[in-house]
């Protein structure tokens, strides 16, 4: 390996790979290849690129912040300048990642041993920093003229998987920082954290200030006051239907900026929601149930759209939420299957934590008998069945949501189920 400057490294070409041996052996090397294989639109190009890399067609690889470059040769000897671009981290993202790495001495030791702790990658993802590339994060550029991954960019990615296996700092260099700079920053942050911990322990050992004790109120006095209070009035009866708000169709003309139809719709929707909440409050066992989380503005807009019959109202709600009409209709469909959790399954693209993933794997293993399980490929919290247009999504609440591929997009195809087998079988393969 030759070092040209702290922010660029050139790795010499490696000899052809032994047939039958994989390009990646570490979990982060496999994650890199999944980003390539799951993103490419033409699997034949990827397979051809794998053959190129195995035959030794990839020349020296230059690694720098934001990109890779190499010359890749066709079987006839034609050379192609090939680049793969990767998004660099912002200063804020680096700050979060370095804080996480410095907080655990084991993380630093693992990195120096040329290993990526899976806990560090998972914690970084939870903090909004995707250390490893995902689908669409590897941006191919090649002078052969292909706009998607071609055999040359695929071959470069396969070759880089070998480099990542040996030195994960290659990935961090792609994200924008050299090894020397990272080691120095981690050392500084680790020392600062140790000083802060020592100061905190010293402060905790100091005697707390003494304050006069609060005498409080005698319990007998409080009990006597409570006994004198009148009994609570009986609960009101639930009206048979929501009230009708007054009409705004009067002889007086409305202000130009006032949408009378929208205001009338909002008044009617508010009356219906008030009636629903009162019914819940009067239902037996209401006091024992945990209160529902308040809806966000985006969720409430979808709820309102599901109730709105007026085309103009639905169009205004789409504009207010930053969705297209088609996107909002899809959100309404998801809402109809499961309210806010159903909408979250549609719009969230999240990565399960270790506990969730372990429970999901156990549920998948128990859902089908031996030899009957479908082939499912996971990307974050979504499991897609190979060879069909079906998908399962794992919600934050632990339920499985079925999806179907139609018209080039994934649409919700039914309500959630507590286990993956029930959710998938409820929506037969097309």
Strand content: 5-15%
Q: How are strands sequenced across the largest beta sheet?
A: 1-2-3-4-5-6
Which segments are poorly predicted (pLDDT under 50) over 5 or more consecutive residues? 1-5
Helix content, binned percent: 40-55%
β-strand number = 11
Silhouette: globular
Tell me, rounded to a whole number, the average pLDDT.
82
Instruction: Characterize the largest beta sheet: strand count, sense, and whether it forms a barrel.
Output: 6 strands, antiparallel
How widely separated are the two ends?
52 Å
In short:
With 430 residues, the protein is of the alpha+beta class.
Structure write-up:
The chain has 430 residues and is α+β, with helices and mostly antiparallel strands. It has 15 helices and eleven strands. The protein has helices spanning 27-39, 43-55, 91-103, 105-112, 118-126, 151-166, 169-174, 179-205, 219-227, 260-282, 297-307, 311-321, 325-347, 354-367, 420-425, and strands at 2-5, 8-11, 61-64, 67-73, 79-85, 139-142, 376-379, 382-385, 390-394, 400-406, 409-412. The strands form two sheets. A six-stranded antiparallel β-sheet has the order 1-2-3-4-5-6. It has a five-stranded antiparallel β-sheet with strand order 7-8-9-10-11. Mean pLDDT is 82; it is low at 1-5.
């Amino acid at each position: 390996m030759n070092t040209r400057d702290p922010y660029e490294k050139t790795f010499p070409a490696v000899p052809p790979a032994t047939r039958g041996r994989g390009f990646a052996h570490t979990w982060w090397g496999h994650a890199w290849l999944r980003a390539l294989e799951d993103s490419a639109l033409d699997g034949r190009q990827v397979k051809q690129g794998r053959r190129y890399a195995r035959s030794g067609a990839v020349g020296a690889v230059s690694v720098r912040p934001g990109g890779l470059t190499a010359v890749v040769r066709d079987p006839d000897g034609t050379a192609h300048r090939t680049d793969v671009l990767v998004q660099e981290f912002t200063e804020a993202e680096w700050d979060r990642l370095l804080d996480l790495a410095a907080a655990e001495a084991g993380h630093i030791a693992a990195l120096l041993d040329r290993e990526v702790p899976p806990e560090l990658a998972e914690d970084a993802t939870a903090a909004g920093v995707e250390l490893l590339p995902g689908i669409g994060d590897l941006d191919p550029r090649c002078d052969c003229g292909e706009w998607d991954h071609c055999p040359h960019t695929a071959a470069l990615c396969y070759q880089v998987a070998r480099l990542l296996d040996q030195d994960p700092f290659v990935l961090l260099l792609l994200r924008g920082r050299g090894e020397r700079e990272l080691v120095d920053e981690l050392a500084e942050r680790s020392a600062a954290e140790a000083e802060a911990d020592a100061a905190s322990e010293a402060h905790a050992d100091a005697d707390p200030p003494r304050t006069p004790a609060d005498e409080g109120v005698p319990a007998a006095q409080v009990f006597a006051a409570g006994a004198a209070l009148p009994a609570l009035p009986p609960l009101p009866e639930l009206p048979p239907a929501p009230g009708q708000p007054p009409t705004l169709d009067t002889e007086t003309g409305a202000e130009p900026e006032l949408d009378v139809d929208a205001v009338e719709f909002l008044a009617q929707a508010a009356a219906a929601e008030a009636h629903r909440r009162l019914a819940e409050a009067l239902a037996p066992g209401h006091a024992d149930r945990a209160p529902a989380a308040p809806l966000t503005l985006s969720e409430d807009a979808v709820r309102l759209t599901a109730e709105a019959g007026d085309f103009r109202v639905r169009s205004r709600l789409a504009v207010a939420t930053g969705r297209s009409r088609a996107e909002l209709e899809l959100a309404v469909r998801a809402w109809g299957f499961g309210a806010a959790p159903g909408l979250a399954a549609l719009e969230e693209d999240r990565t399960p934590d270790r506990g969730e993933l372990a429970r999901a794997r156990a549920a998948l293993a128990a859902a089908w008998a031996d030899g009957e399980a479908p082939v499912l490929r996971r990307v974050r919290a979504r499991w897609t069945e190979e060879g069909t247009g079906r998908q399962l999504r794992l919600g934050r609440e632990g339920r499985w949501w079925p999806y179907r591929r139609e018209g080039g997009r994934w649409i919700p195809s039914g309500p959630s189920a507590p286990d993956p087998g029930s959710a998938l079988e409820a929506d037969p393969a097309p």
